[in-house]
Amino acid sequence: MNNKNADQSNKMDTLKKILESKTRIQYQDCDPFNHLNNAKYIDYMIAARTEQLLDNYAFNTAVIARDKGIGWVVVQTQISYFYPAVWLEKVTTETKLIAYSDASLLVEAIMWDEHKTQLKAVIWSKLVHFNINTQRSYKHSEELMQFFSQIHVPIADNASFEERAKTLKQFNQTV
Predict the structure, then answer these.
(1) Does the keyword Hydrolase apply (predicted)?
(2) Which of 47, 62, 119, 165 could make an S-S bridge to 172, C-beta 3.0–4.6 Å?
């Protein structure tokens, strides 16, 4: 292995697996009670994951779609709400890749208050790798599979979404 490959290998070994970022809840995204609109939780968490991928891995899905004609399409979303996020509140969103296959990803995003003491919501999004030109699912490259293996954080005991939400709720009550 040459030095360049060794450097890349060392970099891959040190990739963060759980990504985190903060954002402020905006007025236009809230309902009349100043709570974040239910549908907007998904927008905030997807936006957080997109920025985190750029900031932590320089992984730009827009460039991949433009240059290679491939991307990921959300095929399933599961969400549980625990406590409302409110207008101008700063929230912390933590994301991770919890499962992957040759043609799909399962990403978990958890929204907390700024200091991660109050759980707001948890979401699981299943994405299918997709060829934009053929309009069909598409297998991940070996390079992507290696990348996913480096950032994968499996859920203990292969818990279902409902079990995971229950565990998070119980954990939140002890914080």
Answers:
(1) yes
(2) 119
User: What SS3 state is found at 169?
Assistant: helix
3-36, pLDDT tens digit by residue?
444 444 444 458 999 999 999 999 999 999 999 9
Q: List, in sequence order, every residue forming a beta bridge with 72; answer none if it has no partner.
A: 129
Cα–Cα distance between 56 and 70 in angstroms, integer?
21
- Alpha-helical (H) ranges within 28-129 are 38-57, 61-68
Contact 49, 61 (CB under 8 A): no
Coil, strand or helix: which one is 168?
helix
Structure letter (DSSP) for residue 138? -
- pTM, two decimals, is 0.89
Confidence of residue 175 (pLDDT cuts 50, 70, 90): low
Report the distance separating Cα 160 and Cα 149, nearest Å: 21
User: How big is the chain, counted in residues?
Assistant: 175
Q: Where do we find the tokens 């905030």?
A: 44
pLDDT tens for 70-101 read: 999 999 999 999 999 999 999 999 999 999 99
Nearest to 167 by CA among 99, 114, 110: 110
Domains of the chain: 16-165 (3.10.129.10)
